[in-house]
Every structure is written in C-alpha cells, then in structure tokens.
Amino acid sequence: MLDLKFIRDNSEVVRRALIARNIDNIDLDGLLALDDKRRKFMHELETLRSKKNTANDEITKILKEKKDPKEKIAAMKTIAAKIDDLETKVKELDPQIESVLIRIPNIPHLSVPVGAPDKNKEVRRWGELKTFDFKPKNHIEIAESLDIIDFKRATKITGSNFIVYKKDGARLERALYNFMLDIHTKEHGYTEILPPYLVNRASMTGTGQLPKMEEDMYKLKDEDYFLIPTAEVPVTNLHRDEVLKEEDLPILYTAYTACFRREAGSYGKDTRGLVRVHQFDKVELVKFVTPKASYDELEKLVGNAERILQIFNIPYRVILLASGDLSFASSKCYDLEGYAPGMDKWLEISSCSNFEDFQARRANIRYRGKDGKVNFVHTLNGSGVALARTMIALLENYQTKEGEVLIPEVLQPYMGGQKRITGSIK
User: 3-state class of 214 per DSSP?
Assistant: First the structure.
C-alpha cells in the first residue's frame, strides 16, 4: 500500500495517479480529513499523557512530603478520562483510514504511458511469424485430433473452462514446467520453491489481491483460505513480517504451481479451448531487491521470461502496459505476447511487474541496510512462463501438414527422446 505520509504530502500526485488508472471510487479528501482528525487527536493525547506523567510525579512528591494529594489525584483522574476518550476515538478512526488506504492502487512509474489499454506501447518483437503451406489448425482442433486434451470430460467432472491433459498432452505439460524450472535455477540463478496451493487472507492482502479482487478468487467455505491465483502470493509472503539483510539481496525465487482464478465477469470472452481457463499451470519468478536496483532487476526479469520463448522459438512481442491496464499493485508492467498462428492472435504468456515497495508495506517486508537503517524492500514478479497459453503457441507453431506436432528439441529429453506427437499413444 502507499505510505499515508506520502499521500498527505503528495496528494496531487495520488490524484493524478487515480485519474491515470481511471479510478473514481476513492474518497481521497475523506481520507485526508480522517488523517487530519487522527493527527489532532494524537497531538492532544501526547499533551495529556505528558500532563498525566507530571501529575504522577507531583503526587509522588506530595506523598513523600506527607501532604494530602486529593486535589492532584482528582485532576489526574480527569486527565485520564480524557485520555481514555481520545484513545477510543483514535481506535474508531484507524479502521476507517485503513479501509480507504488499502483500496488505493500503486502509483504508475513515470515511464508508463497514461491512458486506457489502447495506449499500451509495443517495445520490441522477436522472431519471424511462421508460414505454412497449408491452413494451420487452432489448438482445439489439434488437441482433439491427436486426443491429447479432453475438454468435454473436464467439463463433466468439474465445469466449463477446466481442462484434462492426457497422453502426450500431459507429458508435454509436465515437460514444459520441468524444463522452465531447470532453466531458471541453472541459468538464471533462482532458488526453487514448492509452496502451498492454499493461502490465508493475510497473504492475499499482502500481495494486493484482496480486498479488490476477492470475487475473482476461489475461497474455502469453512476456513478463511484461498486457492492461489499465482505462486506470487505464497512466495512473496515467505518473508512477510521479516527484516532481511541487504547483503542477501537480491533474493530470487522460482516456483511451479497450479493457479486458480474464477475470472468473474469474463464469461463469454475467449471461453473455448485453453485461452481462458480457471485452473492452469505456471512457473513464477519472484524477486526481493533494494529500491536502487529494482528497475534494472525488472529488465532482467523480462529477459528471463523472454529467454524461455526464444528457446522455444515462439515469436513474441513485449508490451509496456499503460496506466489504465496496470494491475492494482503494479507500478510498471511488461506483457509478453506469443503468436498463435492457428488462431492468428497474440496471446499474453507472461506479465512482469515491479511493485516497488507497495507489496512490501502491506506485507511488512523490510531489509536492514549496511548503514543499519531499516527500509522496505522492492518486490517484483513475472511469469516465467505461464501455461496454458504457451501450450497453445507450441501446438500451433509446431504443427505439421500431416496433423502431427513436432516436439522442440530442448523438450525431447524431458519426453524420453520423443520427437513428435502423433496421437498414437493409447
């Protein structure tokens, strides 16, 4: 979250940020009025507490002199009653302030284009779009003809927008996330984590999913636990309420998990196939860094995700998101979009974000500098990369005229040396 003092001292910056994000339901003036009232109460409290301490000293002195302290005791009781009253008022104000503060999004970085998603900026492209001497199929046609994904039975056993991988489809999915974990740990220096798939409310609040996006989350009925929307949540919260050492930064983690999202409000939009599903696999990258290094680390993070797509030879483009397309907690974000020739679409495969100290303040993640001072870390995360859209890109880019799918050379060792998917495995 944003620091209340920062909001107080930079209210116009926050107003412009809300406008840039097209957010009009935050009562900033009301928040500042509550903050002003609280600070006045706190000033009165400090004055009264000082008077109470003085009165205590005077009563002690009077008793030592064996005089009657009745008048002083009465005065002190009056002060104590006023203190109790003010403390009650402050306690009543705190949740009111918190309820507004926790709903204010992060400030977009100065390099972020201002406006709606149509202001997103293409930064660069990589790879050549593949040409075919036949009409390429989309991933649904490929998967069904090879019998490697069962959409109908997934709907039967769970519901719409769930999937069942089978045969070489299941093997390819497993090969993908194992390969990506190996690249990120062996080449990029990340430490592998296997976290829980359920997290508590504090964890979801710490990374910014709650309270804003609660309707998009799957929540347990009898316990205040949530299925994770991304490994970002449990991995970032590994260091909640901790003070790290500057010499240990940056800390780099990677994690494979299943991810669960209700996608509330998106029904009827890209509902067929693998484009928009409620459960999907993802390899996540999370960084804890010093403020000075965070934007250099963001570029490195994007490069780590790009490396995966380059190895797979999937054409992609890097998009810098505009202010109106940023996630709630992000200050700056790049999307990597892979090209799917069967659908003739660019599909978001990775998002790489710098949250600056926004998540760290919510989760109370700090570091002690070499000078002994304690400050909030900057947190970053990115998909390194996400399935199932990477699966879409692979199936559609590696399809053959004969209806088979070639397996990228780097994945063949993860599939026992297999070079193509023919649909022949029973």
Answer: helix
How far apart, in whole angstroms, are the C-alpha atoms of residue 189 and residue 182?
10
Q: Write the burial class of residue 223 (CB in 10 Å: 0-12 exposed, 13-18 middle, 19+ buried).
A: exposed
4-101 and 117-421 in the same fold: no
The CATH T-level fold of domain 117-421 is: BirA Bifunctional Protein; domain 2 (3.30.930)
Domain boundaries along the sequence of the chain: 4-101, 117-421
Please answer whether residues 195 and 256 qualify as being in contact, where contact means their C-beta atoms are separated by less than 8 angstroms.
no
Q: Cα–Cα distance between 151 and 43 in angstroms, integer?
A: 64
Catalytic machinery residues: 261, 276, 348, 351, 389
The 10 Å Cβ neighbour count of residue 154 is: 18
- pTM > 0.85: yes or no: yes
pLDDT tens for the chain, 426 residues: list them: 999 999 999 999 999 999 999 999 999 999 999 999 999 999 999 999 898 888 888 888 888 888 888 888 888 889 999 999 999 999 999 999 999 999 999 999 999 999 999 999 999 999 999 999 999 999 999 999 999 999 999 999 999 999 999 999 999 999 999 999 999 999 999 999 999 999 999 999 999 999 989 999 999 999 999 999 999 999 999 999 999 999 999 999 999 999 999 975 555 556 689 999 999 999 999 999 999 999 999 999 999 999 999 999 999 999 999 999 999 999 999 999 999 999 999 999 999 999 999 999 999 999 999 999 999 999 999 999 999 999 999 999 999 999 999 999 999 999 999 999 997 644
